Amino acid sequence: MEVLHRTESVSKFAVKRKGFVFDETEHLSTCRVLTERLEAELRAAKSEQLSCGEVLLPADLLPRIALDILKMAETEPCGLRGCTIFINYESDNQCRRIGTLKCDPSTVSTFEIHLTLRQDLKASWKSMLPQFIKNFTKGGTIVISGSFSLQRKKLYRSFQD
């Protein structure tokens, strides 16, 4: 990533990547949208795949994941548009797919990212939740750890490979 110039706003930069110019506000907007889509996929998985009443995760987890995915997509031919994200959940040494997110359905996938979320086995803060919140969560509560893994799998070959 190469910074070309700084605009009048201190927080707004123009960045050149592979011949295209993006500004930081566009990057942050893309990160926010990706965070929202990951959240929606987890909400759907809560009842369909995880069979639980509530999924708790650290507040900064999804934005961190989205930012890491955007960084991984920077070097790809189609960028984030060519990405398919497979969301996996690991608990008790068992890993299962709980969701799939195609970033741009109109673009052929050029790479896959396998996101693995892990159960928080410590979850000491779960005991501090008010009782009325615990009562709302019929079917149990799953607590997601702040650690995760991302693995990229290219679906093409380049001359450099």
From TrEMBL:
Membrane-spanning segments: none
Subcellular location field: Cytoplasm
Keyword Cytoplasm tagged: yes
Keyword Cytoplasm listed: yes
GO biological process, one term: response to oxidative stress
Recorded GO CC terms: cytoplasm
Family: Belongs to the DDIT4 family.
Record-given protein name: Protein charybde
Organism: Bemisia tabaci
